[in-house]
Specification:
Length: about 280
């Protein structure tokens, strides 16, 4: 399936918001209509409403609560995938316990991504905008750990197209040296996000990178977001990375649109928190 189909960008996006709460639907719609000119928000209170909406025309993105009056929000995700005539559209689960579901790997292959409701509606709007109409974040620096120069070059080009500065290292030890220098004020770099492969040459892995940044450097998820790239489909192994402190995972083979969306969202969320301090 081509990249253009997997994440459709539109000047007049149709976003379906499925939530049993009328207030929540209105809050999300208000923020989206403010931030995305031309957006059409289709509010649905139930699975039955959502299925009717899907039958009436294509949508560009779907958000759904997990608990709905007539069933599980996962059925929405399945319905979107199975709807005849539907191109692949992102399906975002919006839930107060999304992080727990993610760590326990209870989301299915029908779900594109998740959003923690506790982050607020402004952050949700930024998250959705990243899928529908992504905006580059100029000047942000990504510390990228990847031991394959070929893979690194390809991934760097994906991110540099978004006006991001990429500092690539081959080993976890090199990354720690740069982070230590930054923490001591001895570096010209200020890292805004870490992107690491889970499998690295040497004694340390991507999981070690996550644990050390969170424990030894004491950097929280908003101070320094970490995305881990993995080709491991084992849900337990994925859960370990998230429980160790990774903000999110990027599954291999890397899909540019999804990688860019996740990177830009974590950067945007971190900057929102900085402004609120």
């Amino acid at each position: 399936m081509s990249q253009a189909l997997r994440h459709l960008i539109s000047d007049a996006p149709r976003v379906m918001v499925v939530d049993g709460s009328k207030l929540v639907r209105k809050l999300i719609a208000d923020v989206l209509q403010r931030d995305l000119p031309g957006v059409e928000v289709i509010g649905c209170a139930s699975i039955a409403d959502a299925k009717k909406a899907l039958a009436s025309g294509a949508v560009h993105l779907v958000t759904t609560a997990l608990a709905l009056p007539d069933g599980d929000g996962m059925e929405i995700a399945r319905s979107v995938r199975e709807a005849s005539g539907q191109a692949y559209v992102p399906v975002i689960v919006v839930s107060g316990d999304a992080q727990q579901h993610l760590e326990e790997r209870r989301f299915t292959e029908f779900v594109t991504d998740y959003f923690d409701k506790s982050l607020g509606h402004e952050a949700l709007a930024a998250f959705i905008r990243g899928y529908v109409q992504p905006e580059p974040i100029s000047g942000a620096t990504v510390l990228y750990i990847e031991d394959s120069r070929v893979v690194a070059e390809t991934t760097k080009r994906m991110l540099e197209r978004q006006s991001l500065k990429i500092v690539h290292v081959l080993k976890a030890e090199d990354a720690f040296a740069l982070l230590t220098a930054e923490s001591l004020g001895l570096s010209t770099h200020h890292f805004d996000l870490v992107l690491t492969d889970v499998t690295l040459k040497g004694e340390l892995s991507g999981r070690d990178v996550v644990q050390r940044i969170r424990i030894d450097f004491a950097y929280g998820k908003r101070r320094l977001p970490i995305l881990v790239m993995t080709g491991d489909s084992n849900r337990d192994n994925q859960a370990v990375l998230l429980q160790a402190g990774a903000n999110d995972l990027v599954l291999k083979p890397i899909e540019e649109r999804l990688l860019v969306t996740k990177v830009l969202f974590q950067l945007r969320l971190a900057r929102m928190e900085e402004r609120e301090r």
